[in-house]
Amino acid sequence: MKKIIIIGGGFAGLTCIRKLNNFKKKLDLEITLIDKKSTFDFLPMLPDFIGRNINPEFLINEIDNL
């Protein structure tokens, strides 16, 4: 079994883990994501949240269920 550790749950880390999940069973991979938070904050939508009264729940996504 090959072990892969991804440090950081930002855009790059989440994209990497989603791509690797496609090959997880075929290549026998164990993937670990390390981040200081258990959520991903989608900050590019922050101006829309402030200016257009968008629900703040749309800015925060749990990364535990990847």
Features:
alpha+beta; two-stranded antiparallel ribbon; elongated; single chain; 2 helices; two-stranded parallel sheet
Describe the model.
The chain has 66 residues and is α+β, with helices and mostly antiparallel strands. Helices cover 27% and strands 27% of the residues. The protein has two helices and four strands; from the N terminus they run E-H-E-E-H-E. The chain has helices spanning 11-21, 46-52, and strands at 2-7, 29-34, 39-41, 60-62. The strands form two sheets. The chain has a two-stranded parallel ribbon. A two-stranded antiparallel ribbon has the order 3-4. Strand 1, helix 1 (11-21) and strand 2 form a beta-alpha-beta unit. It is elongated and about 50 Å long. It starts with a strand and ends with a strand.
Q: Span between N and C termini?
A: 20 Å
Instruction: Categorize the overall geometry.
Output: elongated
What percent strand?
25-35%
Mean pLDDT, to the nearest integer, reads 88
Individual helix count: 2
Helix and strand succession? EHEEHE
Q: Which structural category fits the helices and strands? A: alpha+beta
Write down how many β-strands occur, each being a DSSP E stretch of 2 or more residues: 4
Largest beta sheet: what is the strand line-up? 1-2
Major pleated sheet: 2 strands, parallel
Question: Rounded to an integer, what's the Rg over CA atoms?
Answer: 15 Å
Helix percent reads 25-40%
Low-confidence stretches: none
